[in-house]
Structures are given as C-alpha cells and as structure tokens.
C-alpha cells in the first residue's frame, strides 16, 4: 500500500482527515499511566506514550484505553509497526521527553499519533524483525551506555543507560506521590558493579510497568537499566554520593530477559560481558547482600555536620 512518513505528516496533517499507513520503529516506551477518577465512568482509563521513528525523524505516539491491555506488552523498544487509520492530534505540552540515543535525529514535537479503539478504529500490525527490510530506512535503536568510572563527571539530570552485576538489592519501599495523598510510588535500591571502578552504581529503581522484572531483581543477576537520570546532590552535602534514578521511559532487564534486546549489540555491553567472564562467581557471591533497610542519601556522621 502507499505509505507516508512522519516528516510528510507534519507538513500536511491540517489539510487531511485520512492518512496513508505508517511504517515506524519504537525507540522509547513510557510506563503505563492510569488516569481513572471515581466520578468518571470509563472502562479502561489507560494511556501509554511511545517515541516512534522512521527515516525522516521521531514523533510521539499515544496508545489509548482498551488498546493498552491488548498491545502494551507486545510493543517493545525496537518493535516495527505498520499503522493504519490512526488519528493525528496536537502534542500534549507537559509530557516527559526521553533523551534520544541519536542526538542527530530530527524530532517532530508539534503533533502526535493517536491510536484509538474508535473514531477512527486504528489498525496495528507488528512486523517480525526477520521481515524488516533495510530499504525501508528505519533507524536502529541507539543507547547511551556509561561505565561506573564515567559517572562522577556527568552533570545532574544527564540521561544514560547502564549495565552491571547486582551486588545488593533492598526491600521494596513506598513513598507518597504527594503529601496527604493515598497514592504511593513503589521503589527499591540496588547496587551494581561493572569492573571499571571500586564504587558500584547506586540505583533507585521505581516500579515501572514491568512488575515481573521489578520483583525478581536479585544479587548476581546482570541488570540493564535504560533512560536513567543522574542525581548529583554534591553541592549541598559533600558526603553525598551520586546516584541514578529511573525516569518515565526507563526499562529494566535482568538475566533471562536479555535475549533479542537491541542493546546486546552495544560495545559497552559486550565489554561488560567479557569482564564478567574473567570473574570468579564464588568471590562475587561473598560480596552480595539482599534486603534490609537502606538509608540513602546517608546522613552525616556527626550532629555538627547535620
């Protein structure tokens, strides 16, 4: 069928009602958002954002309501989609923006693709990776992996991806989303090492839309976290250590989930695997810890400094 591309959509969307099919690759995926309210009667008040790209650039795509339980888990980072009968809307201005792995990629920020059950009923097809042709010109998924030795020099809020061997994982804890609110964030702390520094990555991992992975993080697993944000609080408190926290677009993977993921081709991931092959598993197990209370950032060691 006759295809269009994202660049052409941005130029012509106001003058059209029906759009030609689109062929795109998913580069980023947000957590699933529930926006239900007691006074509003909606069957499936869910929403998820994706960043999708073709040869012309990258644009946001929104999956709405009952399409979320049906499609959310099948739409992975790297998945190629053929979309027909979608809607185009002006962009929601307050959504979070993931940092693209390819800084040269053009971003179409004024409009977004809307996938709905009706008005119009979107047709979604997932193209298996082995059927994707190079002449389609779809961009590859690119990452921004860093090593632990590089972390201390990165600025606050810098976006990056990490891989490491888990040496500590804390219990799941809860924090109120807002004061006096009944909604909570669920999170846990973890340490991971990659052999480039004596210090581990300190990771604040909020529960994403991957409960099966979040609950199974344990020592000695290979942990990959994407779209993490650097938290540098060194100015106020010199004893405070730099750490990483998840963002709205973070994805977490552990041993058993890595096969077929696009990051397995990344050079820093391959370097980490080579380093792990040189390590003694018995020695590493002796250094691992699980559970317990983990106060972080640590308070100063005396009341005078406090």
TrEMBL record:
**Domain of life of the organism encoding this protein:** Eukaryota
Please name the Gene3D superfamilies in this protein's record: Nucleic acid-binding proteins
Against Pfam families, the record matches this protein to: RADX
Any GO MF annotation of the entry:
single-stranded DNA binding
Identify this protein by name: RADX protein
* Gene source species: Toxostoma redivivum (California thrasher)
Q: Which gene encodes it?
A: Radx_1
């Amino acid at each position: 069928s006759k295809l269009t591309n994202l660049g052409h959509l941005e130029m012509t969307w106001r003058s059209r009602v029906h759009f030609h099919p689109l062929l795109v690759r998913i580069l980023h995926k947000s957590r699933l958002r529930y926006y239900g309210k007691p006074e509003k009667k909606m069957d499936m008040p869910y929403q998820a954002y994706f960043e999708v790209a073709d040869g012309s650039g990258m644009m946001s795509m929104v999956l709405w309501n009952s399409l979320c339980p049906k499609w959310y888990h099948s739409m992975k980072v790297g998945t190629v989609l053929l979309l027909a009968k979608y809607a185009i809307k002006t962009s929601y201005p307050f959504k979070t923006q993931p940092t693209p792995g390819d800084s040269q990629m053009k971003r179409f920020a004024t409009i977004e693709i809307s996938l709905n059950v009706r008005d119009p009923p979107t047709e979604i097809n997932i193209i298996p990776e082995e059927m994707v042709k190079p002449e389609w010109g779809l961009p590859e998924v690119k990452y921004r992996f860093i090593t632990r030795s590089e972390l201390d020099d990165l600025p606050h809020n810098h976006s990056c991806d990490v891989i490491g061997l888990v040496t500590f994982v804390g219990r799941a804890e809860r924090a109120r989303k807002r004061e006096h609110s009944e909604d909570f964030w669920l999170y846990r702390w973890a340490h991971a090492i990659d052999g480039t520094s004596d210090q581990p990555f300190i990771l604040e991992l909020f529960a994403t839309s991957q409960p099966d992975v979040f609950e199974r993080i344990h020592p000695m697993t290979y942990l990959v976290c994407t779209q993490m944000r650097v938290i540098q609080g060194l100015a106020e408190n010199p004893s405070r250590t730099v750490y990483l926290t998840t963002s709205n677009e973070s994805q977490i993977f552990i041993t058993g989930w890595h096969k077929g993921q696009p990051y397995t081709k990344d050079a820093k991931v391959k370097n980490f695997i080579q380093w792990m092959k040189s390590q003694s598993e018995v020695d590493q197990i002796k250094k691992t810890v699980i559970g317990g209370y983990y106060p972080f950032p640590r308070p100063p060691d005396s009341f005078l400094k406090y």
